[in-house]
Amino acid sequence: MYSTSSEKVSEDAPKDNSVSDMLVDTFGRLHTYLRISLTERCNLRCQYCMPAEGVELTHSPHLLSQNEIIHLANLFVSSGVDKIRLTGGEPTIRKDIEEICLRLSTLKGLKTLAMTTNGITLARKLPKLKESGLSALNISLDTLIPAKFEFMTRRKGHERVIESINAAIDLGYNPVKVNCVVMRGFNDDEICDFVEWTREKPINVRFIEFMPFDGNVWNVKKLVPYSEMLDRVVKRFTGLKRIKDHPTDTAKNFTDGNFKVCLFGPSEVNLRDPLRCGVDDNELKEIIGAAVKRKTASHAGMFDIAKTPNRPMIHIGG
């Protein structure tokens, strides 16, 4: 699974660059940030990510091989993408994750190789992953309380996630981004505790609004909107200051934390089948360019999203 993030193209940008034009949508946004979902498998069963009974996984032959991942990634990078994020499922459970990172990190033009992980097996793999070129990390953690963690993820492992966060800090990742999905009645009372956590450590907490996906039993009563989160933090931390966001950020950044409004889009394009049918790179670029041009200015409202057929987050790639 591939998805992209964008920045506005400068008025001074060259207009005759046909390669980069593949990544420019109809709103003039250049998509330089690529997300690649490496696997649907996960070692947790988070309630907001998948149904309690789990999901039917895609059979292995239908998943991209390592060589196919590198081929397509190289196509994107050679066309202007300079940041790749590896997601899942849980990317660290893919057996060839270190080799994938190593091969991706050597792509000419790639500036950042990032990963979003639940942190369960990360601590022991991280030294090798860093050697292989992994340059940025997002670690998911929705609560600082072990019992709540076990309830939300349907698994044990809170201490292993904390261990992974500390290991990332010790290895020099700065900042270590921590993704926290906020749900009313579950962890909204911990917002300021998460912010306090960033005071002494190079941690950037990204508070994410609870979004509707198939099987996660979304309910508007569980939603804590960004404005309410910010209001709670401002009342406790009076010195909060807004920071300028990167053009591709889907987050609002502050000196005491980071509030991320999770973007949502149901449309997808299949690159695996054309690749396996022998389509050449120019034709693949045409397919990608057409998909980018179909992007809308923004996602639908929360209630429209809840009514839209989509897939569980575990299939999409978080």
User: How much of the residues is beta strand, in percent?
Assistant: 15-25%
CATH class placement: Alpha Beta
Give the quaternary arrangement of the chains: single chain
Name given to the CATH homologous superfamily: Aldolase class I
| Number of DSSP-assigned strands | 10
Q: In which order are the strands of the major sheet placed?
A: 1-2-3-4-5-6-7-10-9-8
* Total helical segments: 12
Q: Shape from CA axes?
A: globular
Structural class: alpha/beta
Q: N-to-C SSE series?
A: EHEHEHEHEHHEHEHEEEHHHH
Major pleated sheet: 10 strands, mixed
Instruction: Summarize model confidence as the mean pLDDT.
Output: 84
How helix-rich are the residues, as a percent range?
25-40%
Reported by name, the CATH topology is TIM Barrel
- What CATH architecture would you give? Alpha-Beta Barrel
Rg, Cα atoms, Å: 19 Å
Folded structure, characterized:
InterPro entries: Aldolase_TIM, Elp3/MiaA/NifB-like_rSAM, MoaA_NifB_PqqE_Fe-S-bd_CS, MoCo_biosynth_MoaA/MoaC, rSAM, rSAM_sf. This is Cofactor of nitrate reductase and xanthine dehydrogenase 2. Keywords: 4Fe-4S, Iron, Iron-sulfur, Metal-binding, Molybdenum cofactor biosynthesis, S-adenosyl-L-methionine. The protein has 12 helices and 10 strands. With 318 residues, it is an alpha/beta fold. The chain has a single domain, classed as Aldolase class I (TIM Barrel, Alpha-Beta Barrel), CATH 3.20.20. Helix 4 (122-131) packs parallel to helix 6 (158-170). The model is unreliable at 14-18 and 260-265 (pLDDT under 50).
Short synopsis of the structure:
This protein is an alpha/beta fold and 318 residues long. The chain is built from twelve helices and ten strands.
